[in-house]
């Protein structure tokens, strides 16, 4: 088993440079390991500039996904679901786009009632695209973000070995 993995984050928050992006990138860095490079795609930049995919940005994002061992998929909770922006991107991926990748859904919600969104709605879509999902989703409430490092340490402490084993398989 290698010590590092190719990790990329995809974030479907319509706000550029969002807290969701920060969270997903931090988790990607923790999974990849110290000093290992990671990549991320902020779908707000990819889609909201008035360019309709497929285009070079979409193709670049797809290439990153296909090259990744681990894909961190982040979304805020909007109207009790993941964002339409993320749905648009996932719907445009070809069948099997995540074959061979391990995926980790990340959701950020305003209330505790939405803590199961990643498991009920996002995980089945990622599995349909071919991803394996061997570890629980990272679900945070907005009021937990000031302690992001502590939450990431707790999550990675509990799940990183299984995640790495899944990515190595």
UniProtKB/TrEMBL annotation:
- Identify the Gene3D superfamilies for this entry: 3.40.50.360
Instruction: Provide the species name.
Output: Glycomyces endophyticus
Q: Would I find Acetylation among this entry's keywords?
A: no
* Superkingdom field: Bacteria
Q: Does the keyword Flavoprotein apply?
A: yes
Coiled coil located at which positions? none
Q: Name one Pfam family in it.
A: FMN_red
Q: Which UniProt keywords apply?
A: Flavoprotein, FMN, Oxidoreductase
**Would you tell me the protein name for this molecule?**
NAD(P)H-dependent oxidoreductase
Instruction: List, for all copies, the residue spans of the domain called NADPH-dependent FMN reductase-like.
Output: 6-132
